[in-house]
Amino acid sequence: MANKLKEYLSDPFLKQLYSEVRSAGKIQSISIDLTHTCNIRCTGCYYFNDNMDVGHPTADEETFDLFLENEKKRGTNFITIVGGEPSLKPDRMRKIVKNFKASVSTNGLKKIPMEGLEENLSIGVSVWGNRETDSKMRGNGKLDIFSQALKNYKNDPRAFWYFTAIPGYADQIEPVVEECVANGNHVLFNFYGDLETLGNEMDHRRGFEQTRKAIEKVIERFPDKIFMTSYLSEIVSTGWLYDQKWGYDVCSSFSTNNPVNFDRMKNGNPFSPDFRAYNADLQTTRRCCTGIDRDCSSCFDVWQHFSWVMLNLKKHLGTKQEFTNWLTTMYMFYLINRLIDFDKGSKNIAEIHARLKREVALPI
Ligand SMILES: C[S@@+](CC[C@H](N)C(=O)[O-])C[C@H]1O[C@@H](n2cnc3c(N)ncnc32)[C@H](O)[C@@H]1O
Question: What does the DSSP assignment read for 311-350?
Fold first, then answer.
């Protein structure tokens, strides 16, 4: 392994990426629901669909403070903030960023203020398609959340779009990305899981081939603005990582203190040993960030797929290209979450995409 690494790292670009990632040190992460409440109800939202809010009310102030203290002692240094809608609790976010690096997912309706939240925070602003689709899916057909979010995060250096692509609406990707880029923001993709079994365009079982092609196209058009790589897009959309098929047995980010996962921890597949997905009470954990007992074949969550790739370096050591696939996935994760210098690192995005140019054309 050491010899292979040495050989691949004789490439100055790869060496630079590798040393930036390594110099960030050990990342110990958790995810928390900052609040169990939300100001909208998205169609098929995994959180409300699985009743993750039920029986886990938002922690009181004292519990919250104690929780942060305990996590610091445990060695946690990175927190993914979800829920519920985190923008409803800016003061709690301020407390988090004083002691941890953090990444928050927001629906974009209410702006996360700058004051006290300038540093240590990466903001993923959700969007699900063009105005019509987004409003239908997230705004009950009445709210134009996308327009509001564009205003809220115009040229905001903390923000990127977290675009959940719906399988039947791949044609909406390019025009929406055009607007996001013109708004001064980067874009990462996530893939919609049809938890309400709406079928047709929403149905993840129809596959994400068209979505993948549309992502390739925006990478071509905006190579320095797209965080999603063609490699990760392939992994999420096909569900294959070498000989492994995506599912509970291989997913590497789940609550390791929760007895429901103890058998999984014995099956030999890698996992993040200190990860926990805390409910809004900050006292209990659930199986994983996006599920209690849902079937993982409906999960295309990009963060969990990032982790799957990142914890499988050994599989990626066969050739320099495979190592590049692994390293650039790591690098993008660190960059998006500001675990390395963002201004310096973002200059590498276009070259990363160039290094991942597909050798095999996608089927038409
Ligand atoms: C549950 S939300 C919580 C944070 C915040 N309220 C928001 O909207 O971003 C976290 C992320 O999950 C995404 N999400 C929710 N349900 C999903 C589903 N069924 N398939 C894919 N992504 C989903 C949302 O779009 C959002 O980006």
Answer: T-TGGG-SSHHHHHHHHHHHHHHHHHTTSS-HHHHGGGHH
Domains, the chain: 28-300 (3.20.20.70)
Instruction: Report CA-CA distances (Å) from 345 to 10, 120, 196, 309, 334.
Output: 20, 15, 39, 20, 9
Indicate whether residue 46 lines ligand 1 (CB < 6 A): yes
Other CB atoms within 10 Å distance of the CB of residue 155 = 8
Residues 227-259: tens digit of each pLDDT: 999 999 999 999 999 999 999 999 999 999 999
Cα(50) to centroid(ligand 1), Å: 12
Rg, the chain, Cα only: 19
Q: Using the 8-state DSSP alphabet, how is residue 14 labeled?
A: H
The encoded tokens of residue 159 equal 């923000």
Tally the C-alpha atoms within 13 A of residue 337's C-alpha that lie toward its C-beta. 26
Instruction: Assess whether the C-beta atom of 208 lies below 6 angstroms from ligand 1.
Output: no
- CB 305 within 8 Å of CB 288: no
Q: Which tens digit of pLDDT belongs to each residue from 127-176?
A: 999 999 999 999 999 999 999 999 999 999 999 999 999 999 999 999 99
CA distance 129 to 343: 28
Beta strands in 143-211 (DSSP E): 159-165, 186-191
Position in ligand 1 atom list of the atom nearest CA 85: 6
Q: Which atom of ligand 1 is nearest to the CA of 128?
A: 25
The helix (run of H) or strand (run of E) holding residue 30 is: strand 29-35
